[in-house]
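hey m, so remember when u said the tokens were messed up on ur end? i reran from scratch. heres the input so u can diff it against urs
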Amino acid sequence: MKMNSSIALLTAALLLPAAVANADPVTVNFTAQVKTSSGNLPTTGSTLTGAYVFDSDPAAYQLFSNPSEPGYMGYETLVPPYGLTLQWAGGTPLEFTALGLSVFDNGTTQLPIPTSSDTVSFNTQHNNVGYNMTLFGPDTSFTGNSLPTTQWLNTLWTSGLFSISDYNIFRVVLTADILSVSVSAVPELPVASLLLAGLGALGLMQLATPRRRRPAATPLAA
């Protein structure tokens, strides 16, 4: 019984770093200039910066399609490290987990965009407030509704918008023009470090496992 428990713990510890190593996260950094704003959000004309983290492997997502929009595919994940970080001068940096990513080949009726545009939209929602970045490119910039490539995100989009929508009051409370986008891979830990992390988890689980005390030896009769 003890050996079987140790084998199960060892297997779990080794699978943990393997699952992490199979992830393929990508960071999409952006800057945007505010066009309209309300409340305590950055003022008109100011600049904000942010980064969406997504995974380039479709297996990391729950997928959504629409038969009436054959060029559309929605990708959604609720786990870290995928989500959004956002900051501006004088504001508290924001960081949210969960990501929705939509790809539209040759336009869509779901968004008020030029019907001829290839479109990629990143969206995060927190406390019923949505943070969206949508990038537009020529209708020949990609074909199909696969996840966006690094090349498209770096060089093939031609315009973009960032917005914050407060669904509690049904208002768009900020709009901004995308000024720049740059893509970088999220650094991955070396396999050896992941293995050590897994073995460390094994050690912690072993420490947390109650140990049975051996019965005291019965003294021999003199």
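this time it looks ok to me. The first helix runs from residue 2 to 22. if urs says something different then somethings off w ur setup not the seq
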